[in-house]
Amino acid sequence: MATTQDSGRSYHLQCTGPALETAEAHSAQEHITLFGSCFCPFVQRVWITLEYLGIDYAYYEVDPYKKPAELLELSPKGLVPALRLNNHHPPNALNESTIIMDYLEELANGDTRRSSHTVESLFPPPSDPYARALIRLQADCASRSLVPAFYRYLQAQDEAKQVEGATAFVEAIKALVALFERAEREGYTSYGLWNEGGSLSYADVMAMPWLFRATNVLKHYRGFVMPEGERFQAYMQRLVAHPAVRRTCSTEQLYLDSYERYAFNRPNTSQVANAINSGAPLP
Description:
Layout: H1 17-25, E1 32-36, H2 41-53, E2 58-61, H3 69-72, E3 82-85, E4 92-95, H4 97-109, H5 129-155, H6 159-185, H7 202-222, H8 230-241, H9 243-246, H10 252-258, H11 260-263, H12 271-278
Parallel strand pairs: 1-2
Antiparallel strand pairs: 1-3, 3-4
Helix pairs in contact: 2-4, 2-7, 5-6, 5-7, 5-12
């Protein structure tokens, strides 16, 4: 049964579980510093990318609602994730999760110190632009449909709106799966965990944080049940069990506590929540 009473719990300021172990293992100074927050799904996108590509980095936890000056220097809106590139004087900076992911992908594949046989990639090779485009179509579906549908569903307070939100979220999942199936029909099965034996893809990383939170946050606060189907269930198992994903996940209670404010649509929960309430694009 879904939780229906706001207990007033606040968001966490430190990772737990495997994510805490990963953060502690990356506390020493490196040429790249990821400014993140333990509960933020946009941060998790970048964190998974760093882990998967094997790029050296330092993880630095910040409170994005206090917007410390060091974060504002990197991200004008005070949003995480933000990347500080320490090899430059003064350091360069990047923000926006998809921009950072693209940068890290190019950085990893352009590193001449790494053997081309050992470099992981979230994309098919540039020699197959159509395959890369299929991955980007999947990623676009995650960003345009899945992510906003998640927040509209979670923030809905009226029962009818919650039913509507659940339907829209399921439809977004189905649209993403349809794109996975299209790539499979066309013979592209090496990239993407939809196919057993496939590698982690850009689209998997783009969607994962919200699919994962559907299994705990939406289940707890909205009684949501993930779509049935052997293929989809197997995909979810591969996704959440992937080592690069698992290393960035905290324990369930962190997410339940941190997302209670969304579930009861508290005023000024976040810039994302405000955008959903106003019907504006996500920041």
